[in-house]
Design the sequence.
């Protein structure tokens, strides 16, 4: 088994794709108006319209209703990313903060309210964990 993607369901695919293209610097690949993907070296962020939910199971997912998942992105310098996103991101949950597990993390919300964590390993243990 290989974990390859996370799909976010939204009522406004174009708005969410535009947001994630801006914050990640990754261009989306569009399949149609209801589905796009932002592919990175390690995983894909898929963004699907609420109109696609019945194809899986009617009522099984609701847009803008996530209260338990955080989308996480490894970045080279979280402090620089924070500076670049200030004025664009409307809802920062915290400024860059060094966590007890060794990552410097920036938490914010996307336009649908989903939590997004950009982080940079800063302790030797954390750096080693994410070394490529």
Sequence:
């Amino acid at each position: 088994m290989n974990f390859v993607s996370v799909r976010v369901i939204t009522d406004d695919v174009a708005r969410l794709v535009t947001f994630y293209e801006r914050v990640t610097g990754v261009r989306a690949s569009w399949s149609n108006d209801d589905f796009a993907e932002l592919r990175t070296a390690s995983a894909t962020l898929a963004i699907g319209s609420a109109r696609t939910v019945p194809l899986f199971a009617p009522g099984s997912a609701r847009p803008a209703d996530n209260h338990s998942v955080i989308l996480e992105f490894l970045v080279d310098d979280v402090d620089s990313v924070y500076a670049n996103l200030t004025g664009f991101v409307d809802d920062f949950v915290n400024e860059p903060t060094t966590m007890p597990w060794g990552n410097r993390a920036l938490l914010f919300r996307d336009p649908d309210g989903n939590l997004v964590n950009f982080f940079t390993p800063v302790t030797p243990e954390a750096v080693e964990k994410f070394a490529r």
Q: What stands out?
A: The radius of gyration is 15 Å.
